[in-house]
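Curious: why this fold?
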Amino acid sequence: MNSNKKIKILLIEDDPFLLNMYSTKFELEGFDIIAANNGKDGLKNIFDFHPDVVLLDLLMPKMNGFEVLENIKKSNSEDIKKIPIILLTNLNQEEDIKRGMELGAVDYLIKAHFMPSEVVGKIERILEKNN
């Protein structure tokens, strides 16, 4: 990855264990991590920090991931709208996946199916595609 600028990842996840596990893995990989444990704080962090990529859980307190995604895509800021959003969730029903992708997510990962290292690889490929 480009070593001049640290890639900023916003991780919006309400499970403290997963939040810590993913944050630690991303930091070890050289990413700059911003974390939020609910949708409302996560949405605020998107506008405050303009991350390079967002990992978004769907089932969260205060505002669910679908609502966060809708708010991002309705933003007046083209820069905010262009931020790649990866849904990282345990919801694996076809209608949830379809809804997430229709709302503008670039990928939909089922937590149980991916190791943190695989998620890092997905993030790197998505960022390479967007550059």
